[in-house]
Amino acid sequence: MNDKKLEIPKDFFKQFKNKEEFKDFFQSLFKEGIESMLQAELDDHLGYEKYNPKGHHSGNSRNGSSKKTVKSASLGDMVLSIPRDRNSEFSPQLIPKHSRMSEQIEETIIGLYSRGMSTRDIEEQVRELYGIEVSEGTISNVTNRIIEHIKEWQSRPLEKRYYVLWMDGIAFKIRHNSKIISKTIFLVIGLNEDGLKQVLGMWVAETESAAFWLSVLTDLKNRGVEEVNIACTDNLKGFTQAINSLYPKAQTQLCIVHQIRNSCKYVTWKERKEFVADLKEIYGALNLSVAKDALHRFEQKWNTKYGYAVKSWKNNWDNLTHYFDYPNEIRTIIYTTNVIESLNSTIRKYTKTKTVFPDDSAAFKSVYLAIINIEKKWTMPIRNWGAILNQFMIKFDQN
């Protein structure tokens, strides 16, 4: 690179009466420079400079130019002459095909969009920052490029083993066939062998079923996941059946917090405190044997009044109590789906301004960008990972 300083006469800038005149001059200078660089790109593509005899019978040649309006972060709108070749093979790198604005502006639009700003707010922000107008269609075109990133992200290879999977869904209002309906984007977080959390993918559906979860888990398996040890869920419909078919050694741990909330729906307010205290004797027990005794006492005391709640604990007992097989360090990370609920809560903060999405693709874009922002903070392994990893290996790597 040439570091030689450009010498400008001292009186050069006196010719400009105001900043508008200087901006016009600088824009014309910048425009001329860009167009010269584009011509140099074409020279390199063709293998010869303009009017050079080497171009005779070369199989390709110059073919005039086309006008293209681009948006610059510092100079606003500019009309450039983009050179063409006769074979239409020339693809300039400086001003890529189909690009009409600088990378800086595009990154700003995507950044604002990822933080939940509405299209109107983005228009205003870009106008204030760069002094240029961008339409709703332009913003949509810029953010639509994220779809290709989502496809790559959704199909990327995964690790062979995840000690824990957390699964849950987040509901959105989405326009579908001219109607606004509720759809759920289901998310899966995996805990890998380094103790790091990763969002493995997202899938949209109107309803849950064993077939739906089978398709999700098949996707994970096709992307390289060979082993899952523990799956933490909120009693997702059809999930246990699906995971048993693909990962028969995996244990399904139902979220205790959700189970408590669902049980309390049937309890009167004046008895709820006592009811929850008795439940704590079950889920807070030292081991499974003590928990069974507490469940028996709980049933004797509350079955007459709140039989449905008691029945729910008994029916789900096996999948509610797997965490008793583990020491406290592992219990704290698998007995609840707080990990993914925290993710969902943060996604809500990013998407709260979007009350209705025009289609699935728009919802995917917002959720994906929120996930990318959130995952930037997931740089450290979970607490006490060394001890937890050792316990996992003792439990699952005995064979």
Question: How do you describe this structure in short?
Answer:
This protein is an alpha/beta fold. 48% of the residues lie in helices and 18% in strands.
Question: What is the topology?
Answer:
Elements: H1 19-46, E1 62-72, E2 76-85, H2 103-114, H3 119-130, H4 136-144, H5 146-154, E3 161-176, E4 179-191, E5 197-205, H6 210-222, E6 227-233, H7 239-246, E7 251-254, H8 256-264, H9 269-283, H10 288-302, H11 307-315, H12 317-320, H13 328-334, H14 338-351, H15 360-375, H16 385-396
Parallel strand pairs: 3-6, 6-7
Antiparallel strand pairs: 1-2, 3-4, 4-5
Helix pairs in contact: 2-3, 6-7, 8-11, 9-10, 10-11, 14-15
Features:
elongated; 399 residues; 16 helices
